[in-house]
Specification:
The protein has about 150 residues and is mainly beta. It is built from three helices and eleven strands.
């Protein structure tokens, strides 16, 4: 019998983040601080996807994140879908939502911005949710999705 798919253990409890663009997967890993988790984590990279061509997926056992944290993922992975698993069943499934404001998540691309020169939190307003365009609260510099650098 020829095997055509990789078998990955099902989660009893935890969070699965699916439909992550492959080029954003490791930014999501960094944003969530996954390297510091002590529970099992499965990272799927460049997996085939009917809708996306290639995608990434994260499966984290015994971990849930606040809704606010998960929605921050939308800034770098707007196609992501969050699945909450309990007793091997999906109890909640939803798309991420781009928040109206991002605090201390994104670095300003303007080297003269006060947030890059003083010890302070960054703050961005989302001015275009569809195309992910942000504006720095401090210097009004505009940052497009492909230019986003996480703090």
């Amino acid at each position: 019998m020829e095997k055509k798919e990789l078998a990955v253990a099902a989660l009893k409890n935890g969070t699965v983040i699916d439909h992550i663009p492959s080029d954003s997967l490791f930014k999501v890993v960094s944003m969530l601080g996954i390297k510091d988790l002590t529970s099992s984590v499965t990272i799927g990279f460049n997996l085939d996807s009917e809708h996306m061509g290639k995608k990434g997926i994260l499966k984290m056992a015994d971990v849930t994140f606040p809704e606010e944290t998960l929605n921050r993922i939308a800034v770098i992975a707007p196609t992501a879908i969050i699945n909450i698993i309990k007793d091997y069943e999906v109890v909640s499934k939803h798309k991420v939502v781009v928040p109206e404001e991002l605090n201390n998540i994104v670095k300003c691309n303007n080297p003269k911005c006060i947030s890059n020169n003083e010890p302070m939190r960054t703050r961005f307003h989302v001015i275009d949710r569809k195309n992910i365009v942000l504006r720095c609260h401090h210097c009004e510099c505009t940052v497009h999705q492909k230019e986003i650098v996480l703090k």
